[in-house]
């Protein structure tokens, strides 16, 4: 957490520097050391009345880029994060299909999903680096991040439609295989949540799967079930993320 005695300009710079270095694939421990050291320099400079430009130069972007070039890329660390994200994404897609009792995937579908996730990770890193080095209004940030999230969604929908048109080997699971895969997927999500030290993954999966599953036992029409399920799912996720955001802000104020 950035020291509260720092000016808003210095706090923003340190937050952007951390974001830029992380999205550039640098070692997390090395990032923490550099940010902590620079934070001390900025505190001393501000107490002496020295402007931030005397420490980081007139171009924060150039300073970040030069600092990044001097640091090694954490290849294994990023591979670890990438694998974890891919596993989490696949498991989140698997759970609803397991509850429906329908595990049947083509090789084209599997490879396309992997490619989309890798593309999304690369695009996210570029997006964060851009936000860290440019002054962007809140509206532009929303548009940029919204576009970033919509592109993979559109690609996933495209794959769903083209999957019916493109012939490729299909992997089908029987009932026993579906149960085993469901158990492994659930266990993987639990372990991922423990590793990430947050229940957010499990809660989002619950909102994505339980409303649709439980509504099947009601007498509601299919269209009504779909509407109610969508409202509960997306409304629940939005409320939970809002709650998490408010809790984080409260912790920052208390600190």
Structural topology:
Layout: H1 8-23, H2 28-47, H3 53-56, H4 60-69, H5 75-100, E1 104-106, H6 107-133, H7 138-162, E2 170-172, H8 175-196, H9 200-215, H10 222-254
Antiparallel strand pairs: 1-2
Description:
With 255 residues, the protein is an all-alpha fold. Helix content is 78%, strand content 2%. The protein has ten helices and two strands; from the N terminus they run H-H-H-H-H-E-H-H-E-H-H-H. Strands 1-2 form a two-stranded antiparallel ribbon. Helix 1 (8-23) runs antiparallel to helix 6 (107-133), helix 5 (75-100) packs across helix 6 (107-133) and helix 9 (200-215) runs antiparallel to helix 10. It is elongated. The mean pLDDT is 79.
Q: Could you estimate the helical fraction of the residues in percent?
A: over 70%
Distance between the termini: 9 Å
Report the order of strands and helices. HHHHHEHHEHHH
Report the mean per-residue pLDDT as an integer: 79
Q: What gyration radius follows from the Cα positions, in whole Å?
A: 22 Å
Spatial shape: elongated
**How many beta-strand elements?**
2
Low-confidence segments, ≥5 residues, pLDDT <50?
none
Features:
about 260 residues; single chain; elongated; mainly alpha; about 0% strand
